[in-house]
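Sample intake sheet
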Amino acid sequence: MRVSEVFAPTSLIETLGLLRKHEDALVWAGGTEILRLRVGRRPELPPTIVSLDKVPELRAIGRSDRALDLGAMVSLAQLAALGEGAVPEALAEAAAGVGTEGLRNLATLGGNLLGRERFGDLFAALACLDAIAEFRGASGSRWMAVGRLAGRDRKPLVPTGEILVRVRVPFDPWDLSLVRKIGYPLWPAADTGVFTCLARAAKGSLYEFRAALGGPLFLRDRETETGLIGKRLPLQRREIEAARQSWRARFEEDGVGAPWIERFLAAVDESFDALRAGVAR
């Protein structure tokens, strides 16, 4: 491991200044994904590293009646330990399912969200929860929906020249909150990912339905979800099959391979089974 300079700024302003000066510097949060992609006895790293470990603004956790604010450096262990009612169920479950306890102590929310090679385990949950992310750079700060971090090719689209400061997660009631690991649970691979489904009912009908799968690609189709809104519960078999065909057609149109589509549809079927079982009233 050859590194010539490691900077450890103690404020966000200092961090941004360093990144303007060292444009090619590697930003280091928990480091778990960085080292995973650099397998070997002596991983090769860029000559300049900016560590975010001592930036207090990135470790802040705040809560209002409507949303939870999580700093980018909040560890997944911290997130999972916030407790029932303090964090949306889907997000807590996704965080608790990442790797081992030791890895969760190191891995951060920002690192999980901004993977360049694949979508992290929290991405589908955050997208379904309508979470928004604050980025800050030389020109100021801006907010964007987490879902926009997936490009048209359904691969990660990570902003450059900016730092992720925090993620704001709305508090909304859900009758169904389902999170499922796809494939081997401890190590990301081409056939692994995390599926999230959220559903809400009102007056015997489906009021809201969201389903997403994140891994090497991000699979979600809002138009198909919208087509389910207002359907009476339990859903009829023809309605479910129509939705499945819609998802399949849209994903195939984008060039998504059949195995990944089948993984998504299998998880969706489990969600529909939960609805039929009366999880949503």
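Comment: The CA atoms of residues 182 and 206 lie 26 Å apart. The chain has three domains: 5-51, 56-170, 176-276.
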